[in-house]
Amino acid sequence: MVKSGKSFELLREVDHDGVLEAECGCCRLKEKCTQDYIVEVKNLHVGIWVCGLCSEVLKEHLSKNPEITMEEAVNGHREICHKLMRNLKSVTIPSLVTNPLAFHRENRPL
Ligand SMILES: [Zn+2]
Fold it and tell me: How close is the Cα of 4 to the center of ligand 1, in Å?
């Protein structure tokens, strides 16, 4: 199978049913998805694949701030995610995803 250039550089094929492992461009969470779904998500987010949680955050952010573009929203959210990960090295992303309330309680600023 020929892959098209660099567009799938974050992806790794995990089986032969066309299921790929995609990595969130914001929080680095990995999810297994079909290629069609990956393309759909990337088209919605200026060519960047984002996980379900980040996509919900972006949707909400855009609905509250209609003046900003999707690109600005993705870049802003990515920066927040990266900052969080740098500051909270001991925190695993799955704990943020599975239990956001506990995550915020445990990791509130000092
Ligand atoms: Zn994410």
Answer: 24
